[in-house]
Design brief:
This protein is an alpha+beta fold. The chain contains eleven helices and four strands; from the N terminus they run αααααααβααβαββα.
Length: 270
């Protein structure tokens, strides 16, 4: 038995298979068996033509113009003309071609099953609300702060001494900060921690509102003296704005779980 590695991700595998299918349709790989070529309905009302035309035109068949439909039918007819030749049938018996056809068959079944599974196992309203609540609980606190950016640690220490002596932070920032916010008194406005470099956000997080850093904070930009003016709970996006993203994530997780269970059963039998 073949053992399937657990390291492969379902999403990656699905994307690769879907790509393989689209390439197969675009290149028009033919069926290997002559009887299949003869039996399939290739009229404009057939499902075969509908699938082929949609893949070629990149839009539903009902949106195609008469000229586009005619062109698609001509291409499909040419494919079957070639696929019906003795040489094409002979090539279809080769190992490589048979492997490609088998892969296309499995890809098609996989995609059809995935669509059916997701339609049959939609995310419930309870699941969506629970996932939304979990995500909003992780929204970080936001901060309002100012900073003074200087080139050396000694310069930053000197500024801290002035602040400890009662100097005005805004005025010091206007006079000494080399950063673009200097003329505005070092005002950074409101921000979430993840929008700042780690050293800076870590320093802000441990301050009290109204407090400034007791020691200089070094980042890739230089040395900072930081004043945390205020803080507030982060604002979560409204449910309607993220509902579809949450729904897709839940449904993809359900499908991944189903495949993981199948894979586990396959490995146990191998």
């Amino acid at each position: 038995m073949i053992s399937i590695s657990r390291s492969n991700k379902v999403g990656t595998r699905f994307a690769a298979l879907a790509l393989s299918l689209s390439v197969a349709l675009a290149t028009g790989c033919a069926p290997a068996q002559q009887e299949t070529v003869q039996e399939l309905d290739r009229s404009e009302d057939s499902e075969l033509f509908s699938v082929f035309a949609a893949s070629q035109l990149r839009k539903p068949l009902e949106q195609a113009s008469p000229e586009e439909r005619a062109s698609a039918m001509e291409q499909l007819t040419d494919l079957y003309l070639i696929a019906s030749t003795d040489r094409a049938v002979e090539l279809g018996k080769g190992e490589n071609v048979r492997a490609q056809i088998e892969l296309q068959r499995v890809v098609t079944l996989f995609n059809a099953f995935a669509v059916d599974f997701l339609e049959s196992n939609p995310a419930t309203e309870e699941e969506i609300l629970a996932a939304y609540s979990e995500q909003t609980a992780l929204v970080p606190t936001e901060f309002k702060a100012r900073h003074i950016l200087v080139e050396t640690e000694d310069a930053a220490k000197g500024l801290i001494e002035e602040l400890q002596g009662g100097a005005d932070f805004v005025e010091l920032a206007k006079q000494h900060s080399t950063g673009p916010t200097g003329p505005a008194g070092g005002d950074l406005g409101w921000f979430a921690p993840q929008t700042m470099v780690k050293e800076f956000s870590d320093a802000v997080a441990v301050l009290d509102d109204g407090g400034f850093t007791p020691a200089p904070v070094q980042t890739q930009f230089g040395w900072h003296v930081i004043l945390r003016e205020d803080s507030r709970e982060g604002t979560a996006p409204p449910l309607d704005g993220v509902r579809e993203v949450i729904q897709r994530k839940i449904e993809q997780e359900k499908f991944s779980k189903y495949v993981e269970d199948l894979r586990g059963g396959t490995e146990e039998q191998s």
